[in-house]
Design brief:
CATH architecture of the largest domain: Orthogonal Bundle
Shape: flat
Distance between the termini: 68 Å
Structural class: mainly alpha
Radius of gyration: 21 Å
CATH topology of the largest domain: Hypothetical protein af1432
CATH class of the largest domain: Mainly Alpha
Number of domains: 2
Helix content: 55-70%
Strand content: under 5%
Number of helices: 16
Order of helices and strands: HHHHHHHHHHHHHHHH
Number of strands: 0
Length: about 325
Amino acid sequence: MIIREYQENLEEQILSEFAALSKNSRGRRREEKRCDIRTDFQRDRDRIIYSKAFRRLKHKTQVFISPEGDHYRTRLTHTLEVSQIARTIARALRLNEDLTEAIALGHDLGHTPFGHAGERVLDEVCSFGFRHNEQSVRTVEFLEKDRRGLNLTWEVLDGIEHHTGNVMPSTLEGQIVRFADKIAYVNHDIEDAIRAGIISENDLPRDCCEVLGKTPSARINSTITNIIENSAGRNEIRMSREFQEANDRLRSYMFENVYIGSAAKKEESKAELMVRQLFLYLMEKPELLPPDFQKMMEKDGAERTVLDYVAGMTDRYAVKKFQELFVPMSW
């Protein structure tokens, strides 16, 4: 028996009735020969890990722009932490861990340099707007592998696209990642903000900590446990009302005290200026784009191509390109 078929049969035997089975996937945009060893969702996970966009996440901002300390999160470490939380929930609920992991690893591939600061700017200057979840889908569908895309399954693409926004993912595995993303970034950003001296553990809303726990690890563990307890045996991923309200209040606290206007954001205006100027200047002079992007303009047009180029930059590449275009070189 082909190993993949054995694994597919094993999924059918041990996974929940609500799990997305790899053999029942709605398939890929382009048909291709299936792997003898890996299921389709395992294959998608591997393709994402091997992609250039995934490697670039290590030099993209999570919250702190260009932090000097080695222990602050980047977009890559955030992605790995989302994956770990999501896999824990999926395994406990007997859902498809491979699908969950693939969605988690791919959910932020389209994120801009300088985190949400870059996203806001591109949404302002681009005539058709910008959303990082939509760009993540475009990255894996069209930009990777020399514009051939990764040809991922429908379920992975659906989970990536709907990990944020008003539409819920179609699979429970995608819904898990949606929860795991918020659990990870709120609690790990708290840890980074405390390390930076912006807030202290005692500053956090006391009522939230009474419900969720007094440390990041305690809050993550209790929330994961609550989701598992409230989702078991259901065709829905959910947490209790008490936990949902406490998590929402904690997230609001972070927006009010860290994400907006804090010392962590003091360099954001400079980052926004760079991203805006890069986009507008390259719109005026698209001939300065790299040759592979210039070829894209024939099909996608200048604005779409410039957006893809700027959105794909790492923080340090954006700084380098800005210096190259706007800072005079010494003789």
